[in-house]
Amino acid sequence: MNFREGFCFGALGAALAAAVAAIRVPESTKAFFVLFGGAALLFGPALAGLASVRPLSPALRGVLVGLGLAALPLAKLASLLKVATHHRPLGAVTFAALALLLCLALIAVSARALSADGVERSAGVRYARAALVGAAVLGPLLLLGRATASANLREGVFDVALGLGTGALLGVVRPPSLLRASERFGVPLWGAAVVTGILMGLVAGGGPAQLASPALAAPISWMLR
Q1: Confidence label for 147 from pLDDT (cuts 50, 70 and 90)
Q2: Most buried one in 40, 56, 78, 133, CB count within 10 A?
Q3: How large is the average pLDDT for residues 176-201?
Q4: Do residues 47 and 9 lie in contact, with contact meaning Cβ atoms separated by under 8 Å?
């Protein structure tokens, strides 16, 4: 993924996140354009910056994805042991042993699935790898949202995760037709989204957008009336 694709995928992820958030308020159209601009201003540079970072080694990617996949099962295991085990030291030792085995197994599976042998280049493999990475990101975010007491913070985590996750998955899958379009229209699309969001907020007000999703509106909220 190059920086043009990063801006394009960031704008597309922002559009999805803004559409989902905008339906929470009556003035959904106004809210959508403001949220689209704010989210694009956040997601575009983030994904473009990630695109310029040197790729991670397959081993490190396998470790990160494996640990991400282990987040939800480990949380469930901990809750079950807490209820079923009255001897705390025994429960702690059991959890440590099972957690180690689970993490090692998921790291091994992830490293194998993400290894770039040059043999498996089909679209099905790319989609499977994208789904694997998506699941690894979603698990910790779900735990973060569950641990957050405030509904606004939970919605903010969901909105940002949805937009950035969508953009990142597009960067993993990289549909050929979208890649060709992103080379020509990625940066202009991103710029148009940001400018339109700011203008809509200045003309119509940013109240509905900030009510729908403070997290997505935050990058441009300081210039909204």
Answers
A1: low
A2: 40
A3: 84
A4: yes
